[in-house]
Specification:
84 residues, alpha+beta, 3 helices, 38% helix
């Protein structure tokens, strides 16, 4: 997988938009490689967390109330959605 990262980034660049600085991508990849995969929780933000919109361009809109609840479940008081 690692040898194909540059191709993956190219493909993502054609389909995803973000304001994350491209000059910091390698820094994030380095951080990701140092993670203990047993301590990572993966969540699919699909059905239940989003509503799809069809048309000429497929769009997925997150249900922010569901996302906020998930954030609190995962991060507790460290969640930006947590109330003091």
């Amino acid at each position: 997988m690692l040898p194909r990262v540059s191709k993956l980034i190219d493909v993502a660049g054609d389909t995803l938009r973000t304001n994350f600085p491209s000059d910091r991508v390698s820094e994030m990849l380095d951080l990701a490689q140092d993670l203990d995969s047993d301590s990572v929780r993966q969540v699919v933000l699909g059905a239940g967390y989003a509503v799809s919109e069809s048309g000429p361009i497929y769009k997925l809109h997150l249900k922010m109330d569901k996302l906020a609840a998930l954030s609190i479940e995962i991060f507790g008081s460290d969640s930006r959605y947590s109330t003091p």
